[in-house]
From TrEMBL:
Methylates the class 1 translation termination release factors RF1/PrfA and RF2/PrfB on the glutamine residue of the universally conserved GGQ motif. Residues 96-191 form the Methyltransferase small domain. The lineage of its organism: Bacteria, Pseudomonadati, Pseudomonadota, Gammaproteobacteria, Cellvibrionales. Its EC number is 2.1.1.297. Substrate binds at N183, P184, P185, Y186. The gene is prmC. GO terms for molecular function: nucleic acid binding; peptide chain release factor N(5)-glutamine methyltransferase activity. PROSITE patterns: N6_MTASE. GO terms for biological process: methylation. The keyword Protein biosynthesis does not apply. It comes from Microbulbifer hydrolyticus. This is Release factor glutamine methyltransferase. Keywords: Methyltransferase, S-adenosyl-L-methionine, Transferase. HAMAP family: RF_methyltr_PrmC.
Length: 278
């Protein structure tokens, strides 16, 4: 058995983590059902034998590289506690940039929005938390991801979000949307980073795309034109080196006002365009 302080001092064992101390804080908060502030208020609190054994198991899995979000089964996004599992991507902080851009460009209280490849439902549910009057549809190809997004929606109580199984637009009929958003797969199939960090534990289908990571973005830009209302907006998240290429895809597909917004590190992350229906 060990105290909270002694367990936190084992952060040195997480040599491959970018935030070893925070990782252990999150794991201890998860086990103890306490806040991070509590950990520092009661550093001499001793874990009983059962909790210490659980901590050792979680630490061993984290040392092996398993994401903290998978160990705890949850990840906060836009201040929303989302359930996560191996069926889809773990929400990243940079994706909040996409949410911020949508909210800045769309102050109206009524509109129809489509979230393509919703995964945990992070983007759709973040927007739903800010805009209770919006009609939001979230789709994903994978049944397990659909079930996860539905569970997160139900737990948060956002009944103005519909979650459907759909391979991009395949399950949609003739509905038109004022805004379409997506965080699609955009990593090149040969990217060496696929063998590093958390992505090793996430489904490749949610990460990689052909054509140097641009195939799905190209398809979305082309097909979204059928489903966008007049002057509708399309916004996609992409890799930080793909801004120029994505702007070219949008322009070639006939979008106007094409621009790219930066993430919190000042890198190109979200490209948007407006489709003025002929």
């Amino acid at each position: 058995m060990a105290t909270v302080k002694e367990n936190l001092q084992r952060a040195t064992e997480l040599q491959h983590s970018d935030s070893p101390r925070l990782d252990l804080e999150v794991l201890l908060c998860h086990l103890l059902g306490k806040s991070r502030a509590w950990l520092y208020t009661w550093p001499e609190h001793q874990l009983d034998a059962g909790l210490q054994a659980q901590f050792e198991q979680l630490l061993e899995r984290r040392i092996a590289g398993e994401p903290v979000a998978h160990l705890t089964g949850s990840r906060e996004f836009w201040s929303l506690p989302l359930k996560v599992n191996r069926s889809t991507l773990i929400p990243r902080p940079d994706t909040e940039v996409l949410v911020e851009v949508v909210l800045a460009l769309c102050p109206q209280e009524k509109l129809a929005l489509l979230d393509l490849g919703t995964g945990t439902g992070a983007i759709a549910l973040a927007l739903a938390s800010e805009k209770p009057g919006w009609s939001i549809t979230a789709v994903d190809k994978m049944p397990a991801a659909v079930a996860l997004a539905q569970e997160n929606r139900d737990r948060l109580g956002f009944d103005h979000v519909s979650v459907l199984q759909s391979d991009w637009f395949s399950a949609l009929d003739t509905q038109r949307f004022d805004v379409i958003v997506s965080n699609p797969p955009y990593i090149d199939t040969q990217d060496p980073h696929l063998r590093e960090g958390d992505v090793r534990f996430e489904p490749r289908s949610a990460l990689v795309a052909e054509e140097q990571g641009l195939a799905d973005i190209r398809r979305i830009a082309a097909d979204a034109r059928t489903f966008l209302a007049a002057n509708g907006l399309l916004l996609v998240e992409h890799g930080w080196e793909q801004g120029k290429a994505v702007r070219g895809i949008f322009t070639e597909a006939g979008y106007d006002e094409v621009e790219t917004r930066l993430d919190y590190a000042g890198r190109e992350r979200v490209t948007l365009g407006r489709y003025r229906r002929p």
